[in-house]
Design a protein that fits this description.
Helices cover about 25% and strands about 30% of the residues. With about 140 residues, the protein is of the alpha/beta class. The longest helix is centred in the middle third of the chain and has 16 residues. It is globular.
């Protein structure tokens, strides 16, 4: 199981955050909820999105300017909704099956999922207040 290292927003301690888990990541030092922002591919998408938390799937590509504009907003949302939201980034160039599953003909495309099922979609770069409102409504 792969893991990324993130700093706890509460105490600054470094923590490994797994790409998949049955629970939610928490700081080993202060036990605060950690932001959950991970990458997924065709091979591990089902496992990575298997959580009871709200999942925001970001279908993006490195050459896409609007995708790069949305990325810092998604990082902020992952921090602000730590414990309630998991952000999963999927590079469409390397994951054609996921792209086809969601009919991603335009990116960035954000798919909100719960219990493995898509429940809402946002297409195109949106400002933070729009994305925040969508997350708040679905949590």
């Amino acid at each position: 199981m792969a893991a990324d290292v993130v700093s706890c927003p509460s105490c600054g301690a470094k923590n490994r955050v797994p790409t998949s888990s049955s629970g939610k990541p928490a700081c080993a030092k202060c036990h605060a909820d950690l932001p959950w922002l991970v990458d997924a591919t065709d091979a591990d998408f089902a496992k990575v999105t298997d959580t009871s938390r709200l999942v925001l799937v970001d279908l993006w590509a490195p050459w896409c300017g609007p995708c790069r504009m949305v990325a810092p907003i998604l990082e902020k949302l992952a921090r602000d909704f730590a414990g309630s939201l998991k952000v999963v980034k999927v590079n469409v160039d390397g994951s054609p099956a996921i792209s086809q599953r969601f009919n991603a003909s335009s990116i960035p495309m954000l798919v909100f999922m719960r219990d493995g099922e898509a429940i809402d979609t946002v297409i195109g770069a949106q400002p933070e207040h729009v994305l925040r409102g969508a997350v708040e409504q679905l949590i």
